[in-house]
Amino acid sequence: MSLRSNRRAPSRIAASLLALAALTATAQVCAQEKYDGYLCCNLRSDGSWISDSNYAENGKRVIPVGTPTSVTGYGRHRVNVRIDGTRQAIGNDYSRDIALADFAKRYVVTEDPAAKIATYPAKIQDAIKRAKITPGMSREQVLMSLGYPISSENPDLESNLWRYWMSSFAEFQVQFDDAGRVREITTDPNTRNLVWMP
Would you say 30 and 68 are in contact if contact means Cβ atoms under 8 Å apart? Predict the structure, then answer.
């Protein structure tokens, strides 16, 4: 073997390893489950894209919790879905510590939330319908109303404080009591009017 071919060996090995990694990643995406279910929560869409930030800006509309949804595939940091016959993607923009298949199962659940929502007090049902929060809501009820808080800022869902944003500049913090019920929110007055139902 010549000196020149010895120098090429590491680059060939590196290229082979990169190709193997790409094949493995492709196989993992192909192996991820496609299934029918329901939206876990109220999610905001621009018509084709839903971000895990769930910002309420730029004319986004709320797609209600419980809307029938099919997971049709997976892409780079996205779960491809069909909602009411329309193709959309749920983007894992700020929760990338969560595996994509687990991320999908957060947002597209197999049990229709409507049956559970029907058992809640009228005020809580109304708050969820309006994508707002009200005192006394459980963590599960907040999730149905607002979606999951992004995991990069909320690594522990058992925490007594969850951080959300209505936009890039409008943060609000949901405070839970020791029983896991909404006690209060902290935010500016304008954002409070958008999300709080006293």
Answer: no
Which residues fall within 8 angstroms of residue 191, CB to CB, at 6 or more apart?
166, 170, 171, 172
Residues 6+ apart with CB under 8 A from 61: 44, 45, 47
Paired tokens of 183:
């006690």
Q: What angle do CA 190, 191, 195 make, to 5 degrees?
A: 125
Tokens of 4: 């020149």
User: Alpha-carbon distance 14 to 85, whole Å?
Assistant: 44
Per-residue tokens: 171: 């943060």
pLDDT at 86 over 70: yes
List, for residues 36-70, the tens digit of each pLDDT value: 999 999 999 999 999 999 999 888 999 999 999 99
How would DSSP label each residue in 143-191? Answer: HHHH-PPPTTT---TTSSEEEEEEETTEEEEEEE-TTSBEEEEE--HHH
Q: What are the structure tokens assigned to 101, written together?
A: 């298949």
Strands 108-109, 35-39: pairing kind: antiparallel
